[in-house]
Amino acid sequence: MKILLVQPPFSRFKQHRHSAEFQQYLGLGYLASVLSQKGYSVYYYNCDDSRNEKYPSGFDSRILRGTQLKYISEIRKGVHPVWGEFKNFLLSIKPEIIGFSVKSPLFHSALKLSEICKETLPDCKIIWGNTHPSVLPEDVLSYPWIDFVVRGEGEITLPEVVKSLSENKNLSKIEIHGLSKKLNGKIVHDPERQFINDLDSIPFPSKYLAKNARGKMPVITSRGCNKMCKFCADAGIWKRTVRFRSLENITNEIEEIINRYRIREIGFCDSTFNLYPERVISLCEMFNRKKLKFLWDCLLRIDNIDDKLIQAMSSSGCIQIAVGIETGSNNLLNEIDKQLTLVEIKKNFSIIKKHNIIATALFIVGLPTENTEDIKKSTQLLKELLPSRVFISNFTPLPGSQYFDELYKNRNNLKSFPWEKLGFYEPLFFLDRDISSEHEKSIYDFIKSADRINSKIRMIFTFPKRVIFFYLSHPFQLLRTIRRLSGK
Fold first, then answer.
1. What is the predicted pLDDT for the residue at 65?
2. Do residues 201 and 211 touch, judged by C-beta distance below 8 A?
3. Average pLDDT of the segment spanning 36-54
């Protein structure tokens, strides 16, 4: 039985590659590895992978402005080459089962691909997974082209579904935990699937990710986060529980990435990499003991930072740390349940900068109770922190987040919801309320301050010198990095 796993298009429509977008391929990589291990023929198709197209990357709002409109335009026009490319690939392999990884911003592109699948191969089975269908399976299955939803983790559920379909079993009469399906015109939800406790039991996804890695591989050392941030959608799948891989298992995967695929840049994709700082220090010490030479970055909670942790990370190859500052307003920090204070932010951010690491600050604009003074406080905090990089995202009420439940969960009809507007990258793009002209001006002044920090000239001068020496020692990795950053 042939199985096709698909990453719907997003970057190609926006004509911009965001540095973190490579992380979204990780889930499909794990599923492909599990299915392959069980003997199935698995194909992995990334609609954003086009070697003939070059897109800019970076945080500069002058580059980002208009990208979401391009995405919406391509979805509505339906004439982009990606649709025909995908159809031709379908005809070339004729898969019986097609799975889509769908986060909310990709909803409409995944829906269009599902329609193409059913038109091209009417007997194929369409399965959706990831956060959006896990949180809203009822809405997703109301569309005629989608047969099943795998809720939550899919590494056990999906193989059970594939096995049943390959044996021509009627899934409407079989209970598979974690599965939602259609039965006699109704939508049925089988019981929840328990989380996988032994993450080491899941095979490495590297084989299926290497082609799209562009010289940088995503790796995750844990699943879940137990924090309470109201804007975060992770709770939709992980239910605020956390599980960890063993340090040996993580290190073995990185050795495979370096030795087999000759990739020496890793992006750790954990929701909170430093949930337990001592564990991170032990991991860094293991990297050094095994003499693993690679560059890496991650996302940290800024309240769990001290000199010992950052020194250990720097000595083992960490070159960039992103931290969720979100806002310079204590009132908003309390509103979003960030469990942070400005005193902690200022004190600990300086620790990162002291250790010659690229310090990236993440902010949000457009929060529901935000006012002009809040934005001015964010601008002031930005000037005080003076990070190496800044990324400002617009408030995006994703399904799975507490904000979505508060604002939209009780809507009678989600079919009219503008999922295509949920894109993070353009401040004020999705703002479901009116704001004053003064408030709007303060946001754009904030963005201009960030653009000055993100200027290419300043980035060159804030680049750690040890990274230059690393690339001189590993020229093949340098070439891959140049290609990735240039958008190729």
1. 66
2. no
3. 86
